[in-house]
Design brief:
The protein is mostly helical and 135 residues long. It has 4 helices and no strands. It has helices spanning 25-47, 50-64, 79-100, 103-123. The radius of gyration is 21 Å and the shape is elongated. It starts with 24 loop residues before the first helix and ends in a 12-residue tail after the last helix.
């Protein structure tokens, strides 16, 4: 009645499925967290926040096993924009750190979010404190 399927299905595993490197969920979260922290470090360095940058760099080095490259040059980007960007990045760090159960990084991210929220409020007291990602 029906003719059997003679070709391999796309849903069957490849012949050499073990040839591909596999990473655990924890390793993937480590990579993601280190990336978000490195981005936050770049913005923090651009703002000239040395102590905060050093604390972030310590966490990046712990996750990557090597010290991160530091941002030395400054751009003409307004401080308010940089604080908003840093706040959004710290929020991403907080989410990944919470899913990874990394308390030290989660506390650091929450502190950075608070610091950038205060800087945004101080820089634009008359404007609404619209943060990056907020509606």
């Amino acid at each position: 009645m029906y003719e059997p399927i003679r070709t391999k299905s796309v849903h069957t595993p490849a012949d050499h499925a073990d040839d591909f490197p596999r990473r655990s969920r924890e390793e993937e979260l480590d990579i993601q967290l280190a990336g978000h922290l490195a981005a936050l470090l770049a913005v923090t360095d651009e703002l000239g926040l040395g102590v905060a940058g050093d604390r972030i760099a310590e966490q990046v080095a712990r996750l990557r096993g090597a010290p991160p490259a530091r941002h030395t040059g400054r751009t003409d980007t307004p401080a308010l924009t940089l604080h908003r960007r840093a706040h959004a990045l710290a929020g991403r760090v907080l989410v990944v750190a919470a899913s990874r159960a990394d308390t030290a990084v989660a506390i650091l991210a929450a502190e950075r979010m608070d610091a950038h929220t205060a800087a945004i409020a101080a820089a634009a007291p008359t404007a609404s404190p619209r943060l990056a990602g907020a509606l």
